[in-house]
Amino acid sequence: MKIDRIDAIEVLDSRGNPTLQTIVTLDSGAVGSFIVPSGASVGTYEALELRDGGERYGGKGMLHAIENTEDIISKELKGMDASMQAIIDTTLIKMDGTENKSVLGANTILGVSVACAKAAANELKIPLYRYIGGAVANILPVPMMNILNGGVHATNGLDFQEFMIMPVGAKSMQQAVMMCSMTYQSLKRVLLSKGLSAGVGDEGGFAPSVGSAEEAIELLLIAIESAGYEPRKDIAIAMDIAANELYNKEEKVYKLTGDYNVLNSAEMVDYYCTLVDKYPIISIEDGLYEDDTEGTKLLTQKLGDKIQIVGDDLFVTNTNKILYGIENGLANAVLIKMNQIGTLTETLNAINLAKRVGYNTVISHRSGDTEDTMIADLAVAVGSGQIKAGAPARSERTAKYNRLLAIEKQLGMSQLGVFINGKFR
What is the CATH number of domain 135-424? Predict the structure, then answer.
């Protein structure tokens, strides 16, 4: 299990920007590789993604991250046991020495952290989900597929960032993927029939020019029914608002381009209540600005017993932020993004904390993602019951769903997370 060397390569993510691929090689010859994703809608409190700056790749190059990996980290970790995940991650954190991992870079550190876990799993010749989760890793996540894009994931003027479908009536991963794919193809036909664009955004969802959230949701309902499914019973709707992008800090209001224009926190919460009463919405992510504590508390009080209130920028996969949320009654679910925090151990700590207090967890991709399927294994390993990996289109998205189908085959069983009274179980 001893680490022999760590290498890194500058590769491309799904947006055509450079990212980091890290390769850990053990003395035995076993190898683990991980390609680090990158976000577009980035929370203020996320760990730092290290980029080169300058003209090359528009400043987004990875040469500095490669140098940190091969010249600094590789020398420090050489000879360490790759299976000692907590020790490896603690060493990386101490080497960086900053709260937001700004010296070595969270992307640099995460690449090494996950590649070590993969190398150890490969040495033991067991799947990654079994290596991380043990014998109890057998619950497959319900997909949360983003099939209609807005916000910074598209250029269509739609305020809210993601409109997702969740096949809550599915009995297997195979059925869940089929239901979402059929609805996705149905939505394409609906858009074309209405003279709307069927071009896609960063996560594979369509990005038509629609004027409001209501119009977007109505299109989803038509697509669901046209595909032969019943809204709410078979397929429910989830939204990622990404309210950071809508919030004006000086005026302390949310500025929407649709029908509602300018709203304060209480008015935004009332708007969400109206949408939830009218439509089969079971999950709202980042409904308020990350530091709008009172607004998020109000949203949780009004809708938290009915639907899932997910914190992304609110929590940034950080146990300190999650603890603050627990103490102040903020949200009831945590979005888990490994590159927000920077190591596998810290990610698992965030998941365990959330689960101990009854918060749901959603394992998530990033808008700039890759063909790496690690998050599919992670979702099964921790029994999150939910995964957010984009549309059933573009190979960096479908790779995650295809991996889950393969895991379902390996397990020889179909046990999906179940949504009951605002909770996934």
Answer: 3.20.20.120
